[in-house]
Amino acid sequence: MEPLAPHEKIFVDSDIVDDENHGEIACHECHGGNPDDPNWKTAHNGVVRDPTYPDATTACGDCHDEINENYQKSLHVSLRPYRVIIDKRANPNAVIRNKLECAMNAHCYKCHSSCGQCHISRPTSVEGGFLDGHLFQKKPPMQEVCTACHGARVEKEYFGENKGVLPDVHREKYMKCDKCHTGDEMHGDGKEYANRYEVENGPKCTDCHKEIYKREAENVITHRIHKGKASCHVCHAQPYKNCSACHVGKDKNGLPFYKSKASWLDFKIGLNPLKSEKRPETFVTLRHANVDRGTFDFYVK
User: Fold this and answer.
1) Rounded to whole angstroms, how far apart are CA atoms 10 and 22?
2) Mode of pairing for the β-strands spanning 256-259 and 283-285
């Protein structure tokens, strides 16, 4: 994603004062600093760039108390699935775990989201910048927010940008991410989940396609035969991006980087590795994992 120009990143639109919900909140009430100090250098002491991360209680919690409380455990904040996988696969030795934690903090745990990084600015992972002059967006714009983080795979697949692959059928109907991935799912429900497939209020195809198992429905026999045996994607997906051999490290200036082998398009059907009540199918589509044994060799072997 192309970074915003400097003035686009920080220009505050004066229309914000007309926002009936947020317009009367002074800058320092969320961001800190001292508005009574005439010296701009010292007036900015204590200013916080994103007052909604890691704790949005002061900035958002007074009005959005339930959302704020639940959001602390949402996958966008906790990134818990990463931790669950590492806990299962990594050496339990405390010294090794500490080094691995440093690696994860420098790389894998950098893509947290926050209230501000969805509703006010682009995510920090793409260098931030206001979406629209600090005006609050009730629904985050898909290509400024969602695909800013989910761009390498999801964006290209959804928009049909991979060679020889058509746009997703939902894209062709001009549907945006939040049509399926609602605010309730994004904000969390206060429960901690080990992976995204467990999320109770996550989308299911049958939320919209309610009629597919009824006698008069088109292709009803096919759908009934495969119900509980194969996921919808097994029949309805296209080739998708796969990656391998990701290696992370830091350059001579201490800046984190990663590199991996060239990605490829593939389509694989296999046994469901995360079978659950919500996802009971025996067969699902599988994507090649990007991590291998040497991913964290820069930090620990």
Assistant:
1) 18
2) unpaired
User: What ranges make up the beta strands (E) of 115-201?
Assistant: none
Using an 8 Å Cβ cutoff, are 200 and 74 in contact? no
What's the rounded Cα separation, in Å, for the pair 286 and 198? 17
130-150 exposure pattern, b = at least 16 Cβ within 10 A, e = fewer: bbbebbeeeebbbebbbbbbe
- Residue 52: CB atoms within 10 A of its CB come to 25
User: What tokens appear for 41 in the block?
Assistant: 């250098």
| 234 in Cβ contact with 93 (< 8 Å) | no
Of 203, 205, 221, the closest CA to residue 213 belongs to 221
Q: Read off the tokens for 12.
A: 């505050």
The rounded radius of gyration (Å) of the Cα atoms in the chain is 22
**Stretch 98-106: mean pLDDT:** 94
In the prediction, which pLDDT does 111 show? 84
Phi, psi for 271 (deg, rounded to 5) = -70, 140
- Residue 2: pLDDT over 90: no
Two tokens, residue 20: 């009936």
Query: Which pLDDT value is given to residue 110?
Result: 83
Check residue 108 and report its DSSP letter. Answer: G
207: buried, middle or exposed (CB in 10 Å: 19+, 13-18, 0-12)? exposed
HSE value, Cβ hemisphere, 13 Å, CA-based, for 183: 12
* pLDDT band for position 29 (cuts 50, 70, 90): very high
> What's the pLDDT score for residue 217?
96
Burial class (CB in 10 A: 0-12, 13-18, 19+), 166: exposed
Q: How confident is the model at residue 112, as a pLDDT?
A: 85
Would the pLDDT of 157 be above 90? yes
d(CA 33, CA 41): 10
The tens digit of pLDDT for each residue in 222-267 reads 999 999 999 999 999 999 999 999 999 999 999 999 999 999 999 9
The DSSP output letter for 260 is -
